[in-house]
Structure formats: C-alpha cells, structure tokens
Write a structure and sequence with these properties.
The strands form five sheets. Strands 11-12-13-10-9-15-16 form a seven-stranded mixed beta sheet, with helices on both faces. The protein has a six-stranded mixed beta sheet with strand order 6-5-4-7-8-18, with helices on both faces. Strands 1-2 form a two-stranded antiparallel ribbon. The chain is of the alpha/beta class and 464 residues long. It contains 14 helices and 19 strands.
Length: 464
C-alpha cells in the first residue's frame, strides 16, 4: 500500500487531511471514462455545455461558507480575504462561458465561387489540469471551465497542499449533473502524474507551478506523443513608479500587490523602481503602510497577513533577506514588532528592503513571500533596463498619469501583461501569458480557447 498524501496545515503544523493516491488501475479507468464521456460531450450543443458549466459555478459559490475556512487551514490565507478568490473564480468562469460562442465559432475566409471554406475549432480530447495551491480555485478555473466549454473532458490533479479544493470542484460538477467521467479529480503523486502523461491518453497538460516542474512536465509530454503543454511558471514582477505618479495611490496598491496572500502570488510585485525625485517620499509611505499589517492566525478576522505555506518557504525568504543585508541592503521593518514572526515557523513579518542591487537574490530569484526590494532610478531607460534584467516575464506595472508614456514604455518591457496604475489582477477578457521562464501558452480571453482546441479546415467544392 502506497503512503497517503498528507496536507500539513501552515496554521499549526498538523495534518489537516490525507488521501490515498490513485494507482495505475484507477488512472487507466479514469482515462477510459474521460474518453468515453468526451466522445458524447463534444456533440452536445454549446448552449447545453454552457448550462452545465453555469450550474457548476453556481454550485461552487453555494459552498462559500465551507470553502473560506478550508482555504485558511490549507494554505494560510486570512478568512477576511477568502471570499475574494471565489469572486474572481466566478468572474473568470462566467466570462469564459459568455464568450464561448464567438471564440469557438467557425472562421470563414472571403468567399470563393463554387467552394465553401471554413476553419472549425475542434476539441482536443482529454485535458489534464495540474493546479497549484496558492490560488487554488482561480488557477484551476482558468482551464477547467473553458476546456469543458470547448468540448473536452477534464482530469484535475490538484496540489497536495490543497487536496480539498479538487474535491470541491468534483462536488460542484456532481451537483451540476455533469455526465459521468467528464470531469474527474484524482489524487496523484508526481510520479503517477508523469505516468498518466506517458500513456498518451491526455491530449493537453496545463501546468501552473515552478520552473523546474514545468520543465519536467514538458520533457515527459514529448517523450512519446508530443502532447500539448501550457505552462504558467511564476515571476519576479517589477513595478516602475514615475515622478508624475499619484503617490498615495501607487503606495497603497503596491503595498497590497507586494504582500497580499503573503506575497505568494505568481504576479506579486517583488521589486520596485522609483524615480529618484520621489523615492524618499515613496519609501517612507510604503514602509509606514507595511507596518500596519497584522500577522497572525488566518482564522482570526483581525489578521491581515497569514503564514506562508510552510516553514521551509518562510526560511527561504528569511535566507534571501539575510543575504541581502549581508551585502549592504537595509531593512525598514523590524520583525520584532510582529510577535507571530518566530524563526523556524511559517509566520514571517513583511519586509521592505532598500539599498538593494541586482547582485542580490532578493532582486533576481522568485521570493514567493512577503519581501520587496525598492531601488531609485534616474530615467525611464534605466527603469526599463532593470525591469528587463530578469529570467522571468509575467507581468509588470507602470505608475504614471501619462497614458501615452505607459503604452510606450510597456512596448519595451519583456512581459506577458503590462499594467498601468494597478497590479496583481487577471482580467478574463485579456490573455494571461508569460515570456522567458514565466512560461508559454495562454489562458483566459478568446485566445485561451485556441490552446484548448485544434484547427480543422474544410475545403468543400460544391460546383463541378
């Protein structure tokens, strides 16, 4: 008997849940059931698929009161913010359902006499979704709902840290009376996930996680079958605050963009470049607002900053901070003012570092925690050069009152998304994508459907 997969809560370190991993017989059965269900599902009218998916969204939202505390126990997000993830879940799901008729419509070139020519969007088959723990509903729904709308079946492998999220998705689909086998949640180890991909019976893998994890998925997907892969691998997202920015607005939003979810977001702001003319005022306000966080038990309504996902994750960030300080950085936040910050625990005070350079890990390696480095810059050109000095490229934000300048500078940044005067948000009408080590492929928007379907051309000569 294989060892069960355990979910260790960051709240108190106890085993919050454990589940037995699926074996190969169960995996093969799941793949067979998915193939059978998909063969019928793809023939259903789009309006019927939309009705099923909308009912599943409704069912998930009906579980909100149970989901919010579960999230806190599983990955540490304070309960006061838990419902926000479900609002984002609903926004993305309903948008992708609404745009499906247009996004999946046949493309018809200019008419040619005697011929009917068109390109149809065909479903791929079975889509495997490998979802992460940090935004467990949001990241998963990016693929699950549009994959089903496009006529695919879906198998979900959720992170071990958020085992119960996969079960919530399965329950929502059950309550919506989705056809048997069309959506399945499997508890899988990394090894058994690779074995499932190697069978060649999934046609697309959408993975959200680390760069190393993405490389592993892509290498396995190409061994035998050239399976399609979509990768969202995180970032080291920069912000640039120009001299003409609304200072109070920039500070308030960048503090939130840096520390929401304890900084455990692929598009969290992890490095900030500020025009030297406003740098002192920006730093002073930024540090003052950061000191207002309340670090503590995420089940407490007063808590605004919960623990990191594990003590080891917190220790990694502690190591980055220590290395930066040893190289001349200055810390603006005294951890002793946050009593819950205990060395070796998952609880870590937010930290703001100045006098940082790109020779420090905290400015180059993904932190995935509550720390941000702030540097002064003398010009737009210097800011762009520093923003692009990274192996990642997921999102970047520009804080200015000059729309033309924001678009001009955005054209020069190596990134998937350019924000102006906002950050850390996914607009479901826009493509969510990354460059460099932030991944490849697209979710959300009309383009998201292109990665969950294949083109099929019809060249029909009807006059002979």
């Amino acid at each position: 008997m294989k060892e069960p997969i355990q979910l260790i809560s960051p709240v108190d370190g106890r085993v919050y849940a454990k589940r037995q991993c699926a074996d190969f017989v169960q995996i093969e059965q799941a793949l067979a059931d998915a193939e059978t269900a998909q063969a019928q599902w793809k023939r259903r009218p789009l309006s019927e698929r939309a009705a099923f998916c909308s009912a599943a969204v409704d069912a998930m939202l009906a579980m909100k009161d149970e989901i919010v505390p579960e999230l806190a126990w599983q990955m540490g997000r304070p309960v006061r913010f838990g419902a926000g993830e479900l609002r984002g879940f609903e926004e993305r799901a309903r948008h992708m359902i609404a745009i499906a008729p247009e996004a999946l419509a046949a493309i018809e070139p200019a008419p040619v006499e005697g011929f009917r020519r068109l390109i149809k969007r065909e479903p791929l088959g079975t889509v495997l979704v490998v979802a992460p723990w940090n935004y467990p509903y949001l990241t998963a729904v990016n693929t699950i709902i549009p994959a089903l709308m496009a006529g695919n079946s879906v198998i979900l492998k959720h992170a071990s840290q958020t085992l119960l999220v996969g079960e919530r998705f399965a329950e929502a689909m059950r309550r919506a009376n989705l056809p048997e086998g069309l959506f399945q949640n499997l508890v899988l180890s990394h090894l058994w996930t690779e074995m499932m991909i190697l069978t060649g019976k999934v046609q697309q893998v959408n993975f959200t996680g680390s760069v190393d994890g993405g490389k592993a998925v892509e290498s396995v997907a190409a061994i035998k079958h050239f399976i399609g892969v979509g990768l969202e691998l995180g970032g080291k997202d920069p912000a640039y605050v120009r001299a003409d920015a609304n200072l109070e607005h920039a500070v308030e939003n960048l503090v939130d963009g840096s520390f929401f979810n304890s900084g455990q977001s692929c598009c969290a702001v992890e490095r900030i470049y500020v025009d030297e003319k406003i740098y002192p005022a920006f730093v002073e306000r930024f540090a003052a607002l950061t000191r207002q966080y309340v670090l503590g038990n995420p089940l407490d309504e007063a808590t605004t900053l919960g623990p990191l996902v594990s003590p080891s994750a917190a220790d990694f960030v502690r190591g980055q901070i220590a290395e930066a300080l040893s190289k001349g950085a200055k810390a603006l936040i005294d951890p002793q003012t946050f009593p819950a910050d205990v060395p070796g625990s998952a609880y870590l005070a937010p930290q703001v570092l100045i006098d940082v350079t790109h020779q420090m890990s905290v400015m180059r390696e993904e932190s995935f925690g509550p720390v941000v480095g702030i540097m002064p810059v003398a010009s737009d050109d210097e800011a762009i050069a520093l923003m692009n000095d990274s192996e990642f490229g997921l999102s970047a934000s520009i804080w200015t009152q000059d729309l033309a300048a924001a678009e001009r500078l955005g054209n020069e940044i190596d990134t998937g998304t350019v924000f102006m005067n906002r950050c850390d948000y996914l607009d479901p009408a826009l493509a969510w994508t990354g460059v460099k080590n932030s991944g490849r492929g697209v979710t959300l928007s009309r383009l998201g459907y292109e990665h969950l379907t294949r083109a099929k051309s019809f060249h029909l000569r009807h006059e002979i």
